[in-house]
């Protein structure tokens, strides 16, 4: 093969790529960002781009694909969402004027954690974590670039705690030290929703020390130093809009771990019964994205301090009783934009004139909101909250009412804001008149009526004279011919050129000045960043309080009462979401009563009887109560719980490939180890994943341990009827069961919890409801009778009938029929369905 050299540009490309192997390099060439080689192959697949080849000096063509630079944002967003990092390599010198190779360099790296464009989902957070490890602990420092939030959590030095913390915060990227243990690194890289980035150790810069408090531990400082170094490397600028770090202290919140949040569908919904509604989406009546995000935090971190909870309750009461106050607040809250993110964008320097307008609108309404909120007596801090009114006046005086989307379009500032700007605007707008004046003057001087002045990009202003009149142009007029057309000639004069220079110059000067003034305005806004953040926080809290009040009013919720005893008295409690969703049937409310001496409620009863619903609803009531919300019941007295543990549902953890039983035991283990007398434990049919005797033995052992050692309040549903005997031997165990009515072999569910144990399990009845083949049901009934008389072995009847084989077509037809939801069908769908059913029926001989 002939040795050939790569072109100089490709050589440069390869050098930059070698320095950034873990990023997709967007290499600016003219109006395009080009990707080459492996990046091109990857990007063409991920972005559905056409892969082409570029001859770059060598014989084979180099794989290449490109995107127009002005459309880059949407492509970057798609790649970053998939977890890639994108490095933007720009042309740093003007290709028109530079000799030789255009100078290029990386101006920014966009990563999943640093992505902060407007299109980001407004209601959710985008956290990036930086971790630092000491002999005993891991510090996970979470930051959100778009809001300037920094908070940390100190964890045990264990990979599992770290993984859970990352999942709980829905982290998109994690920055780790280059020295991180290989096993840990591999495990983190395995997590598909998280991008891992390595960072060399750096010292904390002096100006960032102010983000820490005196008593923040050393590992927090290390994690912060690492984060700041990483941000500087990727953003190519020092990030200075962070608020000081706060601690996510587990001591001050009701601890809900990752599994519990999932099992209870707090933030995202997993179960089909609630029609994909999570507690968050159900409760959210906030008008601003900041409010929705704050509500989410309140749900994820309920309080454990009674005065703090009561503070929120009292605010809701005030708002509930004062219709006018509530409605006035709502009216203003409708104008609140995402001030947290706006302020950060201003400070970061990538705000648009529209962003500034949104900030102005928000501030305009911030003042009346804060004034109204002074009536909420349990929140005296609203009186102290800065309303940033002087900043509002300043921006309002500067920006026009309807500024353009981008600065380039011009016309952002009001008349009278800047004398020089006004003058320049005058010149360029007068320019048009000046040109008209010249046109008239020339018409008169030459006597040519059809003479006119035009403009094009190549020659600028010109005087156009029809060729028939050329003789009228005298030498002394000073006309210089510029262009000859078929029927006319274009001229310029020195006067015309002079005016043109002035107009163009004024235009350029005006743009430059507007840019300068805008930058200054952003800097001015940045001065008030801290106040803007406190104001935003207060507005978000007010939004949440109004939203919780509206929920309480709409649904008729009551204010829970907390007491120091470990006893529970929830009267007529309901599952908030199911109650709301049930249209035809009415949701049956249930009491949950446990006195100080009760520790375990052992729940038995048939499948589909409402056991899981009852357990979940009680946990949701506890969470809602401790976040300060009103709750779905008639009255409610609760202790303050410190932690909720759940083992609900039989979902295999497909991601990590653990079997149901293993997952079940691991979750039980967490509860048994960490629960205290003040915790709430929900164990739903534990032990189901293994052989009957194993499962039952494990369940009983766990119950005994909870009863004797932990004494946490526990809701334990089980299908092992033998366990109900424990009530007789263990003082703190109480049996309850779901009420069902049996009529002529059919069962009717009542969904009501009543004291005592269930008399039988009704498994076959439920199977009947599921339309199992009749022969199977009959055989099961017969077998059951035999088991029940097991000591009288002679009565055991072997199956006398030959089992009717189940016809697959028939069961397909039956399945289709059962799953039909006729009410939701359009006439056309119904018709199509009828044809389909007919065909299925025809297949059966
Ligand atoms: P189990 O855990 O006993 O098998 P579930 O709690 O899963 O039963 O409830 C099964 C279904 O019964 C629910 O999806 C719901 O439709 C209905 N249900 C449960 N509890 C109630 C209730 N209190 N009122 C009305 N319907 C209920
Ligand atoms: Mg269940």
Structural commentary:
The protein is α/β, with parallel strands linked by helices. It folds into six domains: 3-110, DNA repair protein MutS, domain I (MutS, DNA mismatch repair protein, domain I, 3-Layer(aba) Sandwich); 128-248, MutS, connector domain (Nucleotidyltransferase, domain 5, 2-Layer Sandwich); 284-388 and 528-555, MutS, DNA mismatch repair protein, Chain A, domain 3 (Orthogonal Bundle); 419-521, MutS, DNA mismatch repair protein, Chain A, domain 3 (Orthogonal Bundle); 561-761, P-loop containing nucleotide triphosphate hydrolases (Rossmann fold, 3-Layer(aba) Sandwich), CATH 3.40.50; 808-844, no CATH class. The chain is 43% helix and 18% strand. It contains 27 helices and 27 strands. The strands form five sheets. The protein has a seven-stranded mixed β-sheet, sandwiched between helices. It has a six-stranded mixed β-sheet with strand order 3-4-2-1-5-6, sandwiched between helices. Strand 14 and strand 15 form a beta hairpin. It starts with 7 loop residues before the first helix and ends with a helix. The relative contact order is 0.06. Mean pLDDT is 88; it is low at 651-656 and 792-804. Adenosine-5'-diphosphate (ADP) is lined by residues 273, 585, 587-588, 607-613, 751. InterPro entries: DNA_mismatch_repair_MutS, DNA_mismatch_repair_MutS-lik_N, DNA_mismatch_repair_MutS/MSH, DNA_mismatch_repair_MutS_C, DNA_mismatch_repair_MutS_clamp, DNA_mismatch_repair_MutS_core, DNA_mismatch_repair_MutS_N, DNA_mismatch_repair_MutS_sf.
């Amino acid at each position: 093969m002939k040795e050939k050299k790569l072109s100089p540009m490709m050589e440069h490309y390869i050098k930059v790529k070698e320095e950034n192997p873990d990023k997709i390099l967007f290499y600016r060439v003219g109006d395009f960002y080009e990707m080459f080689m492996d990046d091109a192959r990857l990007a063409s697949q991920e972005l559905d781009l056409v892969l082409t080849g570029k001859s770059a000096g060598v014989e084979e063509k180099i794989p290449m694909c490109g995107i127009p630079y002005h459309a880059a944002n949407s492509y970057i967003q798609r790649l970053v969402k998939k977890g890639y990092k994108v490095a933007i390599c720009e042309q740093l010198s003007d290709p028109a004027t530079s000799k030789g190779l255009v100078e290029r360099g990386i101006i920014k790296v966009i990563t999943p954690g640093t992505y902060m464009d407007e299109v980001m989902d407004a209601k959710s957070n985008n956290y990036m974590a930086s971790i630092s490890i000491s002999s005993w602990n891991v510090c996970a420092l979470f930051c959100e670039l778009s809001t300037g939030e920094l908070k940390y959590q100190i964890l045990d030095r264990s990979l599992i705690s770290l993984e859970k913390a990352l999942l709980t915060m829905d982290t998109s990227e994690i920055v780790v030290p280059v020295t991180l243990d290989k096993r840990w690194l591999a495990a983190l890289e395995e997590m598909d929703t998280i991008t891992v980035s390595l960072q060399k150790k750096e010292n904390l810069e002096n100006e960032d020390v102010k983000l820490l408090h005196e008593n923040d531990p050393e590992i927090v400082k290390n994690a912060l130093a690492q984060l700041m170094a990483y941000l500087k490397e990727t953003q190519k600028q020092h990030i200075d809009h962070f608020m000081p770090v706060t601690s996510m202290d587990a001591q001050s919140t009701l601890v809900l771990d990752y599994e519990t949040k999932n099992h209870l569908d707090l933030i995202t919904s997993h179960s089909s019964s609630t029609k994909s509604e999570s507690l968050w989406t159900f409760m959210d009546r906030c008008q601003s994205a900041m409010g929705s995000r704050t509500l989410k935090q309140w749900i994820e971190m309920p309080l454990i301090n009674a005065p703090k909870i009561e503070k929120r309750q009292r605010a809701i009461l005030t708002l509930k009783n004062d219709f006018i106050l509530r409605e006035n607040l709502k009216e203003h809250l409708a104008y609140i934009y995402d001030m947290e993110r706006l302020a950060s964008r201003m400070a970061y320097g990538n705000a648009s004139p529209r962003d500034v307008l949104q900030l102005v609108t928000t501030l305009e309404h911030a003042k009346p909101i804060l004034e109204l909120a002074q009536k909420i007596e349990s929140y005296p801090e609203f009186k102290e909250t800065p309303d940033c009114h002087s900043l509002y006046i300043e921006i309002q005086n500067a920006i026009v009412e309807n500024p353009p989307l981008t600065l380039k379009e011009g016309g952002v500032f009001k008349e009278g804001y800047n004398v020089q700007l006004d003058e320049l605007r005058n010149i360029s707008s007068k320019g048009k008149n000046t040109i008209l004046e010249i046109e008239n003057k020339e018409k008169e001087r030459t006597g040519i009526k059809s003479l006119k002045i035009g403009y094009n990009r190549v020659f600028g202003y010109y005087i156009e004279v029809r060729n028939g009149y050329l003789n009228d142009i005298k030498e002394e007029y000073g006309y210089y011919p510029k262009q000859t057309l078929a029927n006319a000639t274009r001229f310029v004069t020195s006067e015309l050129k002079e005016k043109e220079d002035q107009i163009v110059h004024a235009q350029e000067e005006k743009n430059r000045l507007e840019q300068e003034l805008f930058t200054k305005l952003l800097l001015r806004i940045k001065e008030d960043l801290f106040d803007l953040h406190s104001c935003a926080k207060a507005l978000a809290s007010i939004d949440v309080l109004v939203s919780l009040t509206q929920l309480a009013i709409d649904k008729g919720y009551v204010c829970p009462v907390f007491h120091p005893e470990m006893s529970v008295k929830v009267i007529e409690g309901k599952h908030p979401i199911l109650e709301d969703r049930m249209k035809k049937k009415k949701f049956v409310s249930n009491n949950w009563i446990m006195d100080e001496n009760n520790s375990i409620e052992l729940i038995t009863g048939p499948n589909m009887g409402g056991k899981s619903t009852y357990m979940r609803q009680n946990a949701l009531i506890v969470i809602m109560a401790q976040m300060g919300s009103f709750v779905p019941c008639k009255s409610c007295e609760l202790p303050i719980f410190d932690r909720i543990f759940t083992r609900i549902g039989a979902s295999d953890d497909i991601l990590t490939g653990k079997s149901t039983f293993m997952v079940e035991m691991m979750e039980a283990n967490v509860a048994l180890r960490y629960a205290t007398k003040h915790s709430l434990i929900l164990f739903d049919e534990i032990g189901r994943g293994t052989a009957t005797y194993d499962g039952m033995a494990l369940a009983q052992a766990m119950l005994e341990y909870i009863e004797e050692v932990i004494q946490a309040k526990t809701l334990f549903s089980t299908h092992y009827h033998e366990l109900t005997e424990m009530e007789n031997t263990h003082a703190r165990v109480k049996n309850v069961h779901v009420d069902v009515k049996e009529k002529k072999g059919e069962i009717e569910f009542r969904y009501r919890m009543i004291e005592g144990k269930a008399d039988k399990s009704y498994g076959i009845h439920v199977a009947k409801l599921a339309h199992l083949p009749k022969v199977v049901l009959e055989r099961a009934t017969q077998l059951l009778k035999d088991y029940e008389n097991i000591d009288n072995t002679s009565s055991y009847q072997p199956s006398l009938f030959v089992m009717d084989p189940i016809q697959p077509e028939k069961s397909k037809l039956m399945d289709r029929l059962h799953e039909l939801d006729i009410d939701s069908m359009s006439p056309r769908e119904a018709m199509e369905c009828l044809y389909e059913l007919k065909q299925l029926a025809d297949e059966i001989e």
